[in-house]
Amino acid sequence: MTSVNKKAFLCLLIPIFLLSACRIEYSFTGTTLDYNVTQSFSVENFFNDSGGGPANMGQLFTESLKEYFQRNTQLELIRTGGDLQFEGSITRYSIDPQATVTSQDPNLPDRAGQMRLSISVQVDFVNLQNEEESLNRTFAFYQDYDPRTTSVLAVETELIEVIFENIIQDIFTATVANW
Hints:
This protein is α/β, with parallel strands linked by helices. It has helices spanning 3-21, 57-72, 152-177; strands spanning 40-43, 47-48, 76-77, 84-101, 111-127, 135-145.
C-alpha cells in the first residue's frame, strides 16, 4: 500500500470509528429513554374523583394510558414498581355552554349554541432512574359539540376518547419525550 492509499484509508476509517463511538438515541415516537437503564413502567388505577362522567371513565383512562405506552415505547408493563410509575385521578369532568343562541321568539328562552366537555387528569409521575424528571401535574383538554343537533349522550363516548387521546399524548410528551 502506498502512503497516499494509507492516508486515504485512514481518512475513511477515522470518521467511522468516531461515529460508531457516538451514541445517538432516536426513536420515531420521540422518546429520550435509555432502554439499558429504563426497562419497565407501571400504572396504578386512575379513579374518577370528578363527580361526573361514565362510571368506567377511570378504568378507560388507565387502560388507554397503558396501551399508548406499550405501543410507543419498548418498556415492559409490570403490575407495580416500574422504573417509570404513573398514578393519579380524573379531577374534572364538566359540560359547560360556550355560545348562546338568542331565540327569535320572546316566549322561548335562549339556548346554548355550543357546549364544551372538559376533562382534567392529575398525574403523579415518578422516574426511579432520574428523580429530576418526576412530576406532579394536571393535564386537561376539551371538545365542543352542538347540542342543537345531538345530545351529550350520543357523543359522550367519542368526545371522551378524543380528550383522553390528547391528554395521554401530553403526558407522554411531558414524561418520556422531555419536550
